[in-house]
Amino acid sequence: MKNKDMFLIDDGEEDNNNQSWLCSFEEVVINIFTSVGFIIALVLIAVNVEAATTNNEILLNDQITLSDVHRGSLLFKSDNNGRYSLAPTLKTDVSMKVSGMIVRTSLKQYFKNDSTEWLEGIYVFPLPESAAVDHMKLRIGERSIEGQIKERAEANRIYSVAKKQGKKAALISQQRPNLFTNKIANIGPGEQVVVEIEYQQVLKYDNGQFKIRFPTTITPRYIPKNSTALTSNIEMSKSSTFVFESPKVLDAPKISASANVDQLNALNIDIALNAGFPVKEISSRYHKIKSIMHLEGRYTVSLLNKDIPSDRDFELLWQPELGSMPQAALFTQTDVDEDYHLIMLMPPNEISNNNQVLARDVTYVIDTSGSMYGESIRQAKAALQLAISRLRTFDKFNIIEFNSTSNVLFSDSRLASSKNTFIAKNFVSRLKADGGTEMKPALLAAFNAKSDNEYIRQIIFLTDGSVANEAELFSVIKSNLANSRLFTVAIGPSPNSHFMTKAATFGRGTYTYIGKVTEVKQKMSELFSKLEKPVMQNLSIKWPKDIVAEIWPKRLPDLYVGEPLIFTAKVNKHKKLNNQHSNNLLITGKRNQQAWKAELALNNSQENSGVAVLWARNKIASIMDTIREFRDNSTVDIVKDLKQKIIKIALAHHLVSNYTSLVAVDTTATRPIFEGLKVATVANSVPRGAVTKRILQGSYAQTATSAQLHLIIGVMLLLLSIFLVVRHTVVSFRDRVAL
């Protein structure tokens, strides 16, 4: 019995030992898993918090509560619960002077510091893509400080030194031809600082109308995949900032703009219009205006209401009286050593009656990304439905829709039969906007589609153009265009006009802007008219004998129906015009294999002081296009030389460029050294018609980053770790009680 009892006792001890060992092993596994999960969770959450902190340059002290706010304001949350600080408010007054084909614009940006802190205001703002920015003034009370043009690095250094010294300073830098940054240092509590910016541009003329456009806000730019930084909310739930870094977009943080649903950014616009001919009608499609005629062809135009929100682009149109539109115009600026010319010539729409019927193979590419949500996608779908209806039975077509991925309707182009167009319209009606804006795969799919040589290849690209990797996409277009032509259709209240215009230029097509659904039919009909008629090609210019001119753009574009030829030229004064030879400029071209030519007298011009700046702006833009073509290491020296050329031209003509900036510094320090300086980003208004949730909270999906996923996984792992610890503690306690 003893032996048996001893056996039983030994067996029980072994069992208990095994159970103890298993419990210990379970504890070790749980502890390891819990610890690892807890660490991973903290890392994932910390990365997101760090990104938010890194992107959030606003470090203002708490000043007010929500109950203190009585108007739309941009607030920054403080460390103290329920306390906020006010960011600078912005008001913009725009004054335009139109003389013939040239516009001189002055815009005053009023920055008001409503907080009790000393602030540095940073504002990312849009301008027309062709704007030649050449002057800036910093106004403090009655004093005015003229901005100086400097190389970009030197301008940044001057500004930084002034900021540290407590001096008022302003810095204007170009991030894109249509996107600029304004920094204003040392705005005192309750103080207002005014920055006045001036620029020159050429009017657009198309289909019998002159037009001028002023962008007022920014649709947040999409950063392509493989971006390395995260998005984060830095203000209240009603506002967001978009700050990314990407291998493809090295300047992403500089072009990322805050948006706020309550930020009105009051806008006023006044225009002095000297058309130079009798005007039939003046109108604005997106704003209510009032106009007063003073003399024939001279008007003052202004917004009907004052201090309106800056939530959509402003566009003014005027139409000449029948028969009063000049077929040619020459503007000249006389300088010490050179004459600068701006030339506009209107070719006839029809050269012969034997117009060829063009069979077309059309690929429609439609953007269905998150930034198109709301009014924009409705406009795009309406435009595409109309385009499908316009197809003739002998035309071929296909549709590609894209967001984070691309989707092709047919495996290859199909004839526009009633069956195929029905399928296409049904496909379009079901499109929804969501996700990122991965344009490159969609463009490549369109360019690489099989094509019949008997058809004219046309690609119609409907998008808001809200991307940041423009240079990469331009390279794709130039490298893959072949015999195709790319026509861009800008959709929405504030599209990226730089991308849309340049993409059409590289694509040898045209650019159309649709700002609201009610104008889809008119704008698309005008585009169809261009698509269905022959193009004016092989344009060339012959100058009078002994005259050597430097023309920009160097390669004259093809012209579609209703479009004028516009270019700038510099002529050395040592080569004077004389009466022994013809003083006429000869321009030749072909449309539908029919020759066309026109002559323009160079000694019959209008004097205008802004032509030299426009010539310089065109030359810089052309050199920048060349720089984009050199993307490998073997061309580093060539790129350096081209950059130096741009700097030389920009400094000579006092122009802001990619490599030059305007900087203004006050002589007297106003901020006490012991007072800190806080940084505050001035928000843009959310584009009108955009769905707030998509603009402000949909940044994760639209930027194709995994920030939100990382945050969710981190929180889930943290909760799981806590659950396992609690469960294990409860089970252990229960087992002990049972024993």
From TrEMBL:
Residues 361-531 form the VWFA domain. The chain crosses the membrane at residues 28-47, 707-726. SMART domains: VIT (SM00609), VWA (SM00327). Signal peptide: none annotated. Residues 73-201 form the VIT domain. Keywords: Membrane, Transmembrane, Transmembrane helix. This is Inter-alpha-trypsin inhibitor domain protein. It comes from hydrothermal vent metagenome.
